[in-house]
Amino acid sequence: MSAAFIHPTACVDSPASIGDSTQVWHFCHLMPGARVGRRCILGQNVFLASHVVVGDDCRIQNNVSLYDGTTLEDDVFLGPSCVLTNVENPRAQIRRRDLFSPTRLRRGATVGANATIVCGVTVGRYAFIGAGAVVTRDVPDYALILGVPGKRRGWMSRHGHKLAAPNAEGLFTCPESGYRYRLTDDTLRCLDLDEEAPLPEERATGVIRYRDLAPRERGTQ
Fold it and tell me: What is the reported pLDDT for 216?
């Protein structure tokens, strides 16, 4: 076990792996073999099954359960009580433990409170799943997904702002960071920062609340 904080009420079954500076809070349960990276925060009542992998710098809010077949890459945010399934057609009478469908949330993705991610999908880098949405298919990088079933309703910047319509040059601009994005063949890419690069320290602290932006800057039509 590394230099992690584990609350006395949490249950960590050996040989679960927890990275440096990770915090495991009240009533969490990590099964044997679960792997959690560095500097993560697991809120109250989080459950990780044995074959779950959580990357570095992830934030998992209260009452989230991750089952076998789930992988979170670095910097993933899971909102309170969101649900990730692992069997497509569960029945109590039929054992399907060898038929779990893998689910992957790629780097920087956000899942809102009470959203559901149906197993077998991949949620792309920096995608944003709105509260209560139900995701039934793969999600592109930077996509904003809302509704039941979830549909793409726009594009989100790496800083978590809906991008307004592109300018005459076809570029989207994040109202907080100023980073520029271009859409090519339904794939959005940041032009000012490599997809695998961490945010510069001076850009890692939020300075603008979404509701404080003008309607056009919020991406409303």
Answer: 66
